[in-house]
Amino acid sequence: MSIVTPNIVPASVLLAEPRPAWLSQWGAFASEISFNDLDKTLVEQAKLVVLDCIGAVAAGMQEPETRALVVRLGRREAGGGFAAIGAGRRLNAGDAAFVNGVAGTMLELDEGNSFARGHPGIHVLPAALAARRPAEVDGRDFLLAFILGYEIGARVGAASRLRNTMHPHGTWGTIGAAFAAAYLDNADEQALIETVNASASLSLGTSLRTMLEGATVRNSYAGFSARNGLAAWDLVASGFTGEIDGVRSVYGGVLAEGFRPDEMVAALGQRWEIQRNYFKRHAACRFTHGALDVVARLIAEHGPLDPAAIARIEVETYVWAAQLDAPAPANMLAAKFSLPFAIATTLVHGEASVPAFRAAALADARIVDLAARVAVNEDPALSAMLPDLRPARVAIHLTDGRVLSGETFTNRGDARDPYSPDEVMAKFAELARPVWGETHAARIRTAIETLDEAADLMALDALLAAPPLKDE
User: What do you get for the CA distance between the two ends of the chain, in Å?
Assistant: First the structure.
């Protein structure tokens, strides 16, 4: 039999394909590795990422939409076993994973990975925390599961190219979430492989326009990855199966293109993606950070700038940052994905803080007028530097004829120009203190710093389940 229609492969050909070698290698690798095989610097980095994610979740949980979501989900079940972090409520595993993933992306402060072109940590952590009851998981197993989930999800992102209309949240993070859940539930080598294949099919088909328009359904995508990751493992553990090569099917043709299987195992066990991550201090899309770093440096060098003294601002940057050129965002989410607004509000507030993107800033005539005077253009030479570099050039033209300018080729907080551990911990404190108070935030930090000594997660869980100060 034959088929003459282009791009349609007969089932007889598809079904004859063997399991990909990289996937078998991954199954063996994850089954054989132990916590004692991990370098100390890797473990410390993983703890920092966990701490950073929890700070982002707790702060995002205070947003009115997230708080309302927790209440609504809580009505469906009389209690639950897993903490909605920063809400003072417990939910069932799927709902807790979902709402924690939602909360972690609300403020655009969750860590990410430039090579994966997305945010692995906030997809994996909520699922890992809900995979098994806290009394059943020791700290070392938890950290190793988190590292492995982060690793496989990030590698799928790096090995493929999502379609330009896709948002990265909710996609390959589902695979990382499922892998961590399966690992924590003692899945064997074959079950881990099956979980990867099954979870690939449960990835979301997300829309990039949501972030540009400020459609806040976008904030749910990471939550769905966490929930679907748990569901993928439940299916596999119950006997359901995935495709023989689900990752290639979805990330080589459905949601993405150009899947490169060699990338999945390149330096496996030697190069860890969680050590190539970035942390965020600007409360906006990572693509804005190069320009915002330059603006912050110009403020530090020249002092505060009066918006009325600025004639115009010119930005040259790489393609994905240049796409964020809408000057008049409709809400907080859209503002975080508007480079003109992000620059204008940073100049007015002195930093790209959480308040700098709230309703008061959106209504501030100084910011609105200044954002309209920001021009953003792509420089193809800068785009060619991706993903290793994230460059930007900024020129602030003053009404007196002076031009304040600067450029950067990296973003503060990435692997080339990292924040120190103390800076990451300071960020956590800034996010967690308003939620729980300084003493409680410090206790959470200590619990995470000593996770590798913990016989279970009960102490950490109790801290994360505590109600916020405003509810006491």
Answer: 71
